[in-house]
Write a structure and sequence with these properties.
The chain is mostly beta strands and 138 residues long. It has one helix and eleven strands, in the order E-E-E-E-E-H-E-E-E-E-E-E.
Length: 138
Amino acid sequence: MRRAHQPLADGHAGTLRLRCTLPGDGGGDFSAKLSITLRGQRLQNVDAATATHTRGGFNLNLDSQCVVGRLSSDYGVERGWEIAMHEDAQAEVIYLYRPDPGRMPDIALEQPDAPKPLVFTREGATESDRVAPMRVPV
């Protein structure tokens, strides 16, 4: 799991991008739970398509909502999210990947130290040793 953070112009919100690269061809069964909290309160996830296609615009309340969009489809080796949220919010991710649930139902990969979620803040991963370093294009 890699992360990138890009602050927005107003200084109160930011965009967190989380990307996961699955092994092999990305086939199999990948499930993930994403939870965004601010000061201990869970934020309501607003689908990015809803936020961008609402007639007349969409009023986002950063204290109670965040916008979550997918970085990729649900197929292939790359999976991820783009989350517009309050700068002090944190994202928790729990995932499970089963490469071949039909032939090998007992083989699965989950986040390091599961069931403890991976936690991301504006400073990055709270335990960076549990997350692969971000790769910057050259």
